[in-house]
Amino acid sequence: MRNLFVLLLAAATLQACSQTKPETENEAEAAFQTENTYGAAFAEENIISTAQLQEAIGDQDSVQATVTAEIVESCQSKGCWMDVKLQDGSTMKVTFRDYGFFVPVEDLSGRQVVMTGTAKHEVISVEDQRHFAEDAGKSVEEIAAITQSREELRFVADGVKLK
Predict the structure, then answer these.
(1) Are 159 and 42 within 8 A, CB to CB?
(2) Residue 142 main-chain phi, psi, to 5 deg
(3) Least packed by Cβ within 10 Å: which of 23, 111, 122, 133?
């Protein structure tokens, strides 16, 4: 799997180097995506639901998986994160490995997504929660109401496919 990723990364780098310089940031982003795939390309194999992911991670620190989910909310500022629905009605924050790619800033709520990467339990600081709330366009009152850190399931995606 790692060799395949390195090969794909090398191919993408060679192709990017052979193209003329994009004139805008949007054109630059387009060079790193194909159709509705963002980040690393991956095969849609051994896909699990968020319920199966929650079961698989249990008390482990982290788990590698390819997961399908429904998007509840996404970053409207830069496209640097999205929240997906978990079986119990809560959400899981999805970020992108090393901020290496972004998803469209359009409203993605209700769309299905398949993503591959690492799930892990994390404690989210008040500062980070407020930052995400700002990105989502929450009101000043909603942002000010965030006063405690919380533990949640997070997913760091290597690749994302929007359906």
Answers:
(1) yes
(2) -65, -40
(3) 23
The DSSP line for 18-77 is HSPPPSSHHHHHHTTEETTEEES-----SEEEHHHHHHHHTTSSEEEEEEEEEEEEE-SS
Contact 118, 93 (CB under 8 A): no
Would the pLDDT of 18 be above 60? no
Judged by DSSP in three states, 157 sits in strand
State how far Cα 114 lies from the chain centre: 10
**Start-to-end CA span in the chain (Å):** 24
Domain 36-162: what homologous superfamily?
Answer: Nucleic acid-binding proteins (2.40.50.140)
The answer to pTM > 0.90 is: no
- The strand pairing partners of 153, in sequence order, are 121
Query: Could you read off the pLDDT of 77-103 as tens digits, one per residue?
Result: 999 999 999 998 999 999 999 999 999
The phi, psi pair for 35, rounded to 5°, reads 45, -115
Q: Where are the domains of the chain?
A: 1-31, 36-162
